[in-house]
Design the sequence.
C-alpha cells in the first residue's frame, strides 16, 4: 500500500502481468541497437503464438540460434539463403492440407529477399500462398560483413561498393521492391520502420487477418553497417522516413491505399549525416555534392509520387505516430 | 619481397595481376575478404575491370560464363553453400569447356550449418568436370591462381583453386607477390578459340542426342586426364620465372625409404609437416600431398606409394553412407600396384574442428597398433553421442 | 618460437592486433603467422586470435593451445572458461583493465600485468579500441621487437592524424608497463 492506501505493484512485476506474447526471448546475440532484432520482436508479438516461421540465412537466424540455444518461442526453420519463399509455401500447403489455422511467416533480410531469394519469393506470391513475408531491410549483406545488396541505397559505402578515386559508393539505385511486389497483385503489401512500432504492429495484424500472400518491408538500421551509435537506431530510422527516403506506404492488389504523411519533411542531409556509410558525401568534392542532390531528388520524388505532404497535427503522421507525450513535451 | 598479407588479400592481388576483365562478386564467408579486397582495388583505380555485384552465386557463375564466352578473362570466388548453389552452372561451364578460374574457399556444407573449414564443398562437385587444385599455404594460393589461368586457357577446362577457409583465407603470413612483369611474361592475354563473335558466329549449349553425347563426354574426360601434363608444365614454367614451385600434381616429402605415409589435401599438410619434424623418434614417415585432385594423379600416386606398407589417407570430407572420398579413389588407384599398402582412411577436422600437432603421433600409433578398420572420423568424440548413433 | 593468444570480442580489434603483431615481426625479417578463431559472425562475440613468431618458417595451422603469452582485451573474458588454459610456465598475462595488477592478480590467483588500454585509447584516439595500446605494452614487456616495427606496421594501415594519435598512444601505453619484464621468457622461447 502506498501513502494514499492504493495498492502498489512492483515495476518488475508489471512486465510479467502485461498480456503480451513474446515470440523472441531475450539473451539472443544481436549487436547493440540492432534494428532487425527489434523489428522481429515487434512482428512476432503482434503475430501471436499460432504461427510457423521460415527464416532465411542472415543476421536474424544467426543471432537467435547459437546451437544449442534458441531465442525462438515459436516453431522455426532456417534452411538456406535463397529458398525462404519456397519453404514457406511448402509449410503453408501442408498446413492447408491438414486444415490447420497456423499462419506461416517468412523472414528474410534484404539480401535474402531482394537478391538471392527473389525467385522463390516471387513464386510464392504469384501462387497466392497464405504467407506473411517480412523483409528486414538493413540495406546490405550484414552478417557477412557489410556488402552491398540491391537494397543498398545508391552512394552508400559497403565493402563491395567502397568509395575511392573512381567510385562514390554504390552506383546503382535502391531496388524498389514494393513496386515489384505490387505487380504480383497480392492482397496487402506495406513498408514500415522500427521508428514507428505501433505502425508495425497494426500492419502485422492487418496482414495476419488476410487469407493470401502479404508482404512487409521493415526498415531496420544496422549500427555497425550504417556507421552510427546503437543508441541512435530509432532516430536514424525516423529520419529515413521524415526525409521521404523511406516512405511508409500500404498497397492493396498493387494500388496505393495509404501512406504516412510527413508533417515536416526534413532535408536528406539530416539523415545521411548521422551515418558513416555516407560520410564521403560530406567531403568537399563535386561528385559528393552531386550525389547529395540525387538523394534529395529521390526523396522529393517519393514525397510527390506517394502524396506524402501532410497537414498539421495529424495524429497518424510522421510526428504524431508513435509519439510519447509527457508533461506536454514530445519525447523521442 | 615478402610482405605480411592475409590470405584473402594475397589472392585478391594475385587475381588483379592476371588482369581479369570481368569479376562476379557475391559475399559468403570465408571468401568475402577476397571480393572485398578486389572491390577496393577497383574503387581506387588500381584494377580496371567490370566488377559485377551479383544477386546470388548461381548468377556469379553464370555471369563469368557469359563473360568468358564473350571473350573476357574472368574471376569469381565462392564457398560451401555458394558452390552448391552454382553447381548446375559449374557442370555447364566444364561441359562447355570454357576456361574460367575461381577460388573455392573450402568450407563445410549445411546442414548442420557451419562457416568453418572442411573440403565438403569442393568434393561435392568433383564430378562437375573442373580441374581441382588444392593449396597447402597462401604462397601457393597466389602462385596456383596465376598458373590456373594459363592451365585453363591452354586446356579449355575451368580450374577451381581450393584454399582452406580461415586456415588460409584469414591467416596472415609472409607472402611474395610477384611483380606484374613476371605475371605478364607467364600469362598471355586471354585466349579462347570458341568465343561468341558476330564475325564468326557459333552456337553454344545445343541439345546433343545419344548419337553424339558419349563422344563429348569421352573427350571431356580425356582432356581432364591430359591436363595433368599442363599442370606440371605450368608449375615448372612458373617456377623458372618466380623461383617458386607448388609441387605439380603432388608433393612428396620426408624419408624416401619410409614405409608409412600420410596423404592429405590442403593446409593440414603443414601441420603434419611440422609435427613430423618434431617427432624424429617416431621413425621415417613420408608425407604425400595431393595438389591435383582432378585430374586424379594416378601415375604420380603409384610412384609415391611404391614400397609402402601403410598409407593413411587423411581427408577433410566424407560421403555419408559410403565413407571416405579421397580414400576410395586412392584405394582404387593403388590396385595398380603389385603390393599395394594397407590404407587407413580417416576424415579429420570436419566443420573446422582444430587439427592439433599431436594428430601425427596418434595417427602413427593407430597405424602401428591395428589393421585398417572401416572409414572413420579420427577426431570424433563418440562419448558425446547416444549409443544408437555410435 | 613465440606463441601468443589474444582474447577479445568482435569489434575490439584483437584479430587486427594479431595481424599487426605478425606484420611487425615479418617486417623485421622474422617468420610471423596470425589467424582468428571465432564463433558466429557478430559484434561482441568472443573472438580468439593466434600469433606465432619464429626465426624459421612454421607450416602448422593448428590453434595455439600452449601460449607463451596471453593478451586479454576485455577483463570480463576472464570469466569465460578456458581463457587462461595452456599458458606455459613462466608465461605472461596482459589484461586490459583499470584495476591494478596486484588487485587483479589476487582475484585470479596468478601474476598478471594490467593496462587501462580502453582508457588510453579513448584519450588518444577518441574510441575505446584497446588493441594498439595492448600491443605496445606487449612489445615493451617482451622487448622482442623494436617499437618501430609496430609503428611501421600501423603506418601501412593508417595515415595522417589517426596515425599520429596511435603513435602517441603507443608511447603512452609502453610507459605504463614494466619494461622488459617478460624479456627473459620471450628470449628463451624466441629461438
Sequence:
Amino acid at each position: 500500500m502506498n501513502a494514499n492506501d492504493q495498492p502498489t505493484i512492483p515495476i518488475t512485476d508489471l512486465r510479467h502481468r502485461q498480456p503480451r506474447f513474446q515470440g523472441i526471448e531475450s539473451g539472443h546475440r544481436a549487436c547493440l541497437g540492432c534494428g532487425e532484432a527489434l523489428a522481429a520482436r515487434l512482428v512476432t508479438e503482434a503475430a501471436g503464438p499460432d504461427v510457423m516461421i521460415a527464416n532465411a540465412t542472415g543476421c536474424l537466424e544467426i543471432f537467435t540460434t547459437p546451437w544449442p540455444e534458441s531465442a525462438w518461442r515459436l516453431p522455426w526453420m532456417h534452411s538456406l539463403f535463397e529458398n525462404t519463399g519456397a519453404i514457406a509455401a511448402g509449410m503453408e500447403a501442408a498446413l492447408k492440407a491438414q486444415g490447420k489455422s497456423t499462419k506461416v511467416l517468412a523472414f528474410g533480410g534484404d539480401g535474402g529477399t531482394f537478391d538471392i531469394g527473389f525467385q522463390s519469393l516471387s513464386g510464392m506470391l504469384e501462387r497466392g500462398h497464405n504467407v506473411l513475408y517480412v523483409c528486414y531491410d538493413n540495406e546490405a549483406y550484414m552478417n557477412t560483413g557489410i556488402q552491398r545488396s540491391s537494397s543498398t541505397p545508391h552512394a552508400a559505402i559497403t565493402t563491395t561498393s567502397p568509395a575511392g578515386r573512381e567510385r562514390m559508393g554504390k552506383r546503382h539505385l535502391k531496388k524498389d521492391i514494393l513496386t515489384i511486389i505490387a505487380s504480383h497483385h497480392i492482397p496487402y503489401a506495406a513498408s514500415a520502420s522500427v521508428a514507428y512500432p505501433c505502425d508495425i504492429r497494426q500492419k502485422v495484424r492487418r496482414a495476419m487477418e488476410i487469407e493470401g500472400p502479404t508482404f512487409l518491408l521493415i526498415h531496420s538500421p544496422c549500427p555497425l553497417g550504417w556507421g552510427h551509435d546503437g543508441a541512435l537506431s530509432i532516430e536514424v530510422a525516423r529520419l529515413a522516413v521524415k526525409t521521404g527516403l523511406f516512405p511508409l506506404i500500404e498497397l492493396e492488389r498493387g494500388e496505393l491505399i495509404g501512406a504516412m504523411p510527413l508533417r515536416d519533411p526534413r532535408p536528406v542531409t539530416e539523415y545521411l549525416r548521422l551515418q558513416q556509410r555516407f560520410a564521403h558525401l560530406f567531403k568537399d568534392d563535386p561528385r559528393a555534392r552531386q550525389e547529395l542532390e540525387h538523394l534529395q531528388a529521390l526523396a522529393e520524388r517519393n514525397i510527390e509520387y506517394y502524396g506524402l505532404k501532410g497537414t498539421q497535427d495529424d495524429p497518424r503522421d510522421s510526428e504524431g505516430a508513435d509519439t510519447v507525450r509527457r508533461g506536454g513535451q514530445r519525447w523521442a | 619481397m615478402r610482405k605480411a598479407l592475409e590470405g584473402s588479400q594475397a589472392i585478391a592481388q594475385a587475381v588483379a595481376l592476371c588482369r581479369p576483365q570481368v569479376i562476379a562478386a557475391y559475399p559468403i564467408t570465408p571468401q568475402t575478404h577476397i571480393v572485398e579486397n578486389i572491390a577496393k582495388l577497383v574503387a581506387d583505380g588500381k584494377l580496371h575491370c567490370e566488377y559485377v555485384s551479383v544477386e546470388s552465386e548461381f548468377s556469379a557463375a553464370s555471369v563469368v560464363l557469359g563473360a568468358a564466352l564473350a571473350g573476357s578473362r574472368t574471376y569469381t570466388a565462392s564457398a560451401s553453400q555458394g558452390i552448391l548453389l552454382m553447381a548446375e552452372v559449374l557442370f555447364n561451364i566444364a561441359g562447355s569447356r570454357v576456361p574460367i578460374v575461381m577460388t573455392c574457399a573450402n568450407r563445410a556444407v549445411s546442414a548442420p550449418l557451419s562457416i568453418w573449414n572442411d573440403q565438403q564443398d569442393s568434393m561435392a562437385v568433383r564430378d562437375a568436370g573442373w580441374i581441382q587444385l588444392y593449396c597447402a599455404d597462401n604462397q601457393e594460393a597466389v602462385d596456383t591462381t596465376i598458373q590456373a589461368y594459363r592451365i585453363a586457357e591452354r586446356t579449355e577446362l575451368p580450374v577451381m583453386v581450393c584454399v582452406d577457409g580461415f586456415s588460409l583465407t584469414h591467416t596472415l603470413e609472409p607472402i611474395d607477390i610477384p611483380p606484374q612483369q613476371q605475371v605478364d611474361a607467364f600469362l598471355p592475354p586471354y585466349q579462347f578459340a570458341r568465343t561468341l563473335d558476330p564475325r564468326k558466329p557459333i552456337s553454344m549449349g545445343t541439345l546433343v542426342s545419344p548419337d553424339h553425347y558419349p563422344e563429348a563426354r569421352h573427350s571431356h574426360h580425356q582432356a581432364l586426364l591430359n591436363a595433368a601434363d599442363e599442370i606440371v608444365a605450368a608449375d615448372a614454367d612458373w617456377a623458372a620465372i618466380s623461383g617458386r614451385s607448388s609441387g605439380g600434381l603432388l608433393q612428396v616429402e620426408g624419408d624416401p625409404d619410409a614405409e608409412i605415409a600420410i596423404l592429405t589435401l590442403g593446409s593440414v599438410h603443414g601441420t603434419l609437416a611440422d609435427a613430423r619434424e618434431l617427432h624424429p623418434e617416431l621413425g621415417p614417415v613420408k608425407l604425400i600431398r595431393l595438389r591435383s585432385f582432378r585430374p586424379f594423379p594416378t601415375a604420380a600416386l603409384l610412384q609415391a606409394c611404391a614400397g609402402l606398407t601403410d598409407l593413411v589417407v587423411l581427408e577433410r570430407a566424407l560421403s555419408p553412407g559410403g565413407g571416405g572420398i579421397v580414400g576410395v579413389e586412392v584405394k582404387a588407384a593403388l590396385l595398380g600396384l603389385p603390393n599395394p599398402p594397407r590404407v587407413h582412411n580417416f576424415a579429420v577436422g570436419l566443420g573446422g574442428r582444430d587439427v592439433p600437432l599431436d594428430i601425427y603421433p596418434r595417427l602413427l600409433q593407430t597405424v602401428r597398433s591395428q589393421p585398417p578398420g572401416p572409414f572413420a572420423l579420427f577426431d570424433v568424440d563418440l562419448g558425446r553421442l547416444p549409443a544408437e548413433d555410435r | 618460437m613465440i606463441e601468443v593468444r589474444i582474447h577479445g570480442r568482435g569489434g575490439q580489434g584483437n584479430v587486427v592486433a594479431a595481424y599487426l603483431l605478425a606484420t611487425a615481426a615479418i617486417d623485421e625479417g622474422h617468420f610471423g603467422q596470425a589467424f582468428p578463431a571465432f564463433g558466429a559472425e557478430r559484434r561482441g562475440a568472443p573472438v580468439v586470435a593466434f600469433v606465432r613468431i619464429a626465426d624459421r618458417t612454421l607450416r602448422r595451422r593448428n590453434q595455439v593451445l600452449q601460449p607463451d603469452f596471453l593478451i586479454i582485451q576485455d577483463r570480463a573474458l576472464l570469466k569465460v572458461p578456458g581463457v587462461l588454459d595452456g599458458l606455459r610456465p613462466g608465461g605472461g598475462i596482459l589484461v586490459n583493465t583499470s584495476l591494478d595488477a596486484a588487485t587483479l592478480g589476487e582475484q585470479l590467483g596468478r601474476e598478471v600485468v594490467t593496462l587501462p588500454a580502453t582508457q588510453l585509447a579513448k584519450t588518444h584516439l577518441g574510441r575505446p579500441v584497446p588493441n594498439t595500446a595492448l600491443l605496445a605494452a606487449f612489445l615493451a614487456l617482451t622487448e622482442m621487437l623494436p617499437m618501430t616495427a609496430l609503428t611501421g606496421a600501423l603506418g601501412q594501415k593508417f595515415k595522417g592524424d589517426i596515425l599520429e594519435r596511435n603513435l602517441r598512444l603507443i608511447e603512452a601505453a609502453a610507459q605504463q608497463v614494466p619494461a622488459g619484464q617478460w624479456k627473459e621468457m620471450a628470449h628463451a622461447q624466441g629461438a
Chain B has a mean pLDDT of 96. Chain B is about 40% helix and 20% strand. The first strand of chain B starts at residue 2 and ends at 6.
